[in-house]
Amino acid sequence: MSQRACILGCLSTTLSREETAFFRDVKPWGFILFARNVETPDQVRRLVDALRETVGRDDAPVLIDQEGGRVQRLKPPHWPVYPPGRVYGQLAGNDPLLKREITRLGARLIAHDLASLGINVDCVPVLDVPDPQGHEIIGDRAYGQTPDEVAYLGRAAAEGLIAGGVLPVIKHIPGHGRAKADSHLELPVVDASYDELDARDFAPFRVLSDMPMAMTAHVIYSAIDPKRPATTSKKAMRKVIRGAIGYDGLVMSDDLSMKALSGDFGERAEQALAAGCDVVLHCNGDMDEMKAVVDGTGALKGHAKRRALAALGRLARVPEPLDLDEARARFAAALGAA
């Protein structure tokens, strides 16, 4: 059976019989882990292996959100604490090269943590440029206050992940920084002009348009499409994401279970794919919701399949060498001097 154009989650630290049978039947393209799926390194490895066994693919994408700061699924005592993006942007005064080095190093260390568990995709970097009037959902997750700062350090983070054998996901394309609401809870509407969006919000995504994967924003941009959020908007996809930004990598939706979206889960999946998303993402592991998502999702084929294969082709088979003790000491020293 063909791979299904979706990424799905599971409920706990092991797969239930129902989940195992379901994943074997529908064969999602990939999976995503959350804190509810994590206890110990050995347990996570077993879960990752079990997920891949259900679809019969050793390189099946297994995603996680391991940004640092507020958004970190792997936590002490088994994994280090990493800072939010803003901390990197505030390092070392006017030394941009050092900021870049430490941002890349932090991502390289995260990649080491993830790769040792079999996780091969991290939903990082956040390329949203925060607006002073925007909701705090982005806040300190952003690397800086300007498009140049965000793009510069976002690329450093992405390169650090790739060097460690983990694929980055740029998010939330085409930009969540102006949103005045949390799209987990409601649908934000951004009324900035197209020129304002193009100059500020789209700019970091344009700079990183060579990255393998991107995640959409559940945000309405009234200057682009006053009726639909970017995730389900053909106009946003064609004019902006594939057009002005020039992105030809794999585009995944943000989580379909977020309250910014409306309609049943099959409709949400259908609308996102019809708009031009290559795959849809559903995170909470609710079986009834996942079945509805799958009902609205077809096989991964055509340009979407090409982009999926190209993304996985970016996985480093042999990670960049890393002296772990030295790298951790240098990283800690840089943060301690901040």
Number of helices, counting only DSSP H or I runs of 4 residues or more: 12
The termini sit apart by 52 Å
Structural class: alpha/beta
Largest sheet descriptor: 8 strands, parallel, barrel
Please estimate the helix content: 25-40%
How are strands sequenced across the largest beta sheet?
1-2-3-6-7-9-11-12
Order of helices and strands: EHEHEEEHHEHEEHHEEHEHEHHH
Structure in words:
The structure is a single chain. The protein is an alpha/beta fold and 338 residues long. It is built from twelve helices and twelve strands. It has helices spanning 17-26, 41-55, 85-89, 96-115, 147-163, 194-201, 203-207, 234-244, 265-275, 287-295, 302-312, 324-336; strands at residues 4-8, 28-33, 62-64, 66-68, 71-72, 121-122, 167-173, 189-190, 213-216, 220-221, 250-255, 279-282. The strands form three sheets. It has an eight-stranded parallel β-barrel with strand order 1-2-3-6-7-9-11-12, surrounded by five helices. Strands 4-5 form a two-stranded antiparallel ribbon. Strand 2, helix 2 (41-55) and strand 3 form a beta-alpha-beta unit. Helix 1 crosses helix 2 (41-55) and helix 4 packs across helix 12 (324-336). It is globular. The protein starts with a strand and ends with a helix. The model has no long low-confidence stretch (mean pLDDT 96).
